[in-house]
Design goal:
This protein is of the alpha/beta class. The protein is built from 11 helices and 11 strands. InterPro entries: FAD-bd_FR_type (IPR017927), FNR_nucleotide-bd (IPR039261), Globin (IPR000971), Globin-like_sf (IPR009050), Globin/Proto (IPR012292), Riboflavin_synthase-like_b-brl (IPR017938).
Length: about 400
């Protein structure tokens, strides 16, 4: 699922009286947004336990990752609505929209979130602070954001010719290969659409307690009806896949989604891929596409890992590189004291794609931002492993 249109809120504005209220109350909401988010999820899961069992990733909930993502998105969107100098939060909205369609989120669920989120705001800040006027102002913020996302998500569903939410497909595991102690590659077959290089699929498994849990995994080889994913064993879903799912078994996968895709794939300007750890998966997907199409595009691939032994997709990457004479690859291993240094490479006019943990991405983005104009890349695109909020500020 992919569209070239963007979920912009540039032409959306709050009512003047609500804009002043948001400006006045944003500091209080921002200071308490972590508590508000925790209260919101506790309230919503208490009323709708099926959401925690079947839609939300329980690992993210336990670690607080999902709450951080919600806090960042709501506060960031509100601040951008009231600050004329703030950038359009289009990247934030694209990322949320693609995650939503990969989970089969539908319009009616926005009402559930609204009711429980605003109950949490009142509980945390108090009814004396959240007056009827304040509630109305924040309601307008929420529904502007929701309307932009709902419209975008309907377009994404339509791009694959499916009804909203109808993205889950039963798939058969036809190959399972442990490529390292921590990473296993699975090949899945079913009624799956053609993914774009860099996209992911949500995998759904039924755990022993009966809960269906979901996790997104990048697709490292693209073809309709057949997705190849590399899974690092970390959390309930990946552990279940490794220990309980074998060749011939049936699980669920969603139609491909994700906004980190190889844009203008036929361009001839330089391409730079930078990843760490299992963040290599979308990059391997892009390399796979370049190899399959016989691309001669000049490409630099920089990958950081703990050690050569833990470089999970090293063999797969090496095979792809043999088919790509214009690709230069550099592996950086912490055991050897080697770190990714983008500044030493010529990135002029390049399209840069990043994927990894938030600390790694923050460091690389800082390095890129510090490059002089005559050495700066043309564009920078990024993806994270899991919900994080540092990119959204």
């Amino acid at each position: 699922m992919f569209v070239t249109t963007e979920p912009t809120s540039r032409n959306r504005h709050l009512k003047p009286e609500n804009e002043e209220i948001i400006k006045a109350t944003l500091p209080a909401v921002g200071e308490n947004i972590g508590t508000i988010a925790t209260t919101f999820y506790r309230t919503m899961f208490g009323k709708h336990p099926e959401l925690l069992a079947n839609t939300f990733n329980r690992g993210n909930q336990k670690s607080g990752e999902q709450q951080k993502a919600l806090a960042a998105s709501v506060a960031t969107f509100a601040s951008m609505l009231v600050n004329p100098d703030a950038p359009d939060p289009v990247d934030l909205l694209k990322r949320i929209g693609h995650k939503h369609v990969s989970l089969g989120i539908t319009e009616d669920q926005y009402q559930v979130v609204y009711e429980n989120l605003f109950a949490a705001i009142v509980e945390v800040l108090g009814a004396d602070v959240v007056t009827a006027e304040v509630a109305a102002a924040w309601s307008e913020v929420y529904w502007i954001m929701a309307d932009v996302l709902i419209t975008f998500e309907k377009e994404l569903y339509a791009s694959d010719g499916v009804e909203p939410g109808d993205v889950f497909r039963d798939v058969t595991v036809v190959e399972k290969d442990a490529v390292s102690d921590q990473v296993t590659v699975y090949v899945l077959e079913g009624e799956l659409s053609q993914p774009l290089p860099g996209q992911y699929t949500s995998i759904g498994v039924i755990l022993e307690d009966g809960a269906r849990q979901l996790r997104q995994y990048s697709i490292i080889a693209q073809e309709p009806g057949r997705y190849t994913i590399a899974v690092e064993t970390e959390g309930e879903v990946s552990t279940h896949l490794r220990e309980k799912v074998n060749v011939g078994d049936t699980i669920q996968a969603t139609l491909a989604a994700g906004d980190l895709v190889l844009k203008n794939a036929e361009d001839e300007n330089p391409l730079v891929l930078v990843s760490s750890g299992i963040g290599s998966t979308p990059m391997v997907g892009m390399l796979s596409y370049l190899a399959r199409t016989g691309s001669g595009r000049p490409t630099l691939y920089l990958h950081a890992d703990d050690s050569e032994a833990l470089h999970a997709q090293r063999a797969h990457t090496t095979t792809l590189l043999e088919k790509l004479p214009n690709v230069t690859a550099e592996a950086c291993y912490r055991t050897e004291g080697v770190l990714v240094d983008v500044a030493k490479h010529d990135l002029r006019g390049a399209d840069v794609y990043l994927c990894g943990g938030n600390g790694f991405l923050q460091a690389v983005r800082d390095d890129l931002a510090n490059l002089p104009d005559d050495k700066a890349p043309k564009s920078v695109h990024f993806e994270l492993f899991s919900p994080n909020d540092w990119l959204l500020g």
